[in-house]
Amino acid sequence: MPGLFYAQIYQKADIAGRRHQSFRVSAPSCNPSCALLPNINMSAMTGQFAGFFDDVVRLAVWFALLAAIFVPLERLLAERTQGLWRREALNDLAYYFFNGLILSVLLAWPAALLGVAASHLVPDAVLHATAEMPLWLRVVAALVIGGLGAYWGHRWSHEWPLLWRFHSVHHSAKDVDWLTNTRAHPLDLVFTRFCGLMPLYATGLAQASQGAELLPVIVALIGTVWSFVVHANLRWRLGWIEQVISTPSFHRWHHTNDAMRDHNYAAILPVLDRAFGTFHLPRGRPTVYGIDGNMPPGFLAQLIQAFQRSPDAALRLPKPRAPSHAVGVGRVGWYRQGDQHEGEKTPHAPSPTRTPGWKNP
To answer: pTM for the complete prediction?
Structure first.
């Protein structure tokens, strides 16, 4: 979702966690009948509706801008041939608007609690040191430290069966393109974003200070826009740059559903995958995407499935993933459609490393 919406989350956390201010929730003065027959403030309701309408319009404008960029690129340089309006595109569009409207609400209070905890637990010396850093250095540090937290949140979503129930919604896509980025269960997004926020508050990088008010917006905007880039259906290869920053080729191997899945968790910095042994980037491309089980069709059914339990949904620890065997550097440019890595012309048999929250076929 557009990064400007995430700025509201940081703003609430900064307000709640300012030092030397108490954090309390005051109950409104009201007699018992007020709970049963509350007063209706029509002007407030009108204002809320207007704010909701503004958010929808803002999301629509962002979507139009993203489509204007990625649709022509994917038509000219598609890694896989697919129609302009692919299957389940309507579902992904529903996720785009739904998550864009609800995510800031779901994350606001957890982020506010982080701000309160940081204001009491983080030493003053750490807060002063980060406050004196120039903005550009704080942005770089926030991308690295926040990326580290998000890496582990993302990895745990693959390795812990309970979290996989929610994260599997994103991986259920059989076609990966820029719009696939929007397909995600809101609780999966909350968990991963929360994991990325925790180290920012623990190091004082998320505190409000003069000259750094734009830091949350900048970091969120970079991460959001880049997540659309790495999901794009593009056959670019960027050589040594792929070792420094995540690319569509790098992230496609994260979506593969063969023996080499469960790699490339980093959102922006592949060095994190190198550091923790999950980097995998051969010269070719994956041959199969998706998950082992069958994701229910329909937006609402996909939201609900994570809470349902069947005999095949027992929470078992997954088996270890296959080790990576390819860490080479791809050529600069793009490869032709149909090119594949030698030895990977047929998909590997799916490995039983995941336990989805619905019945396997």
So the answer is: 0.77
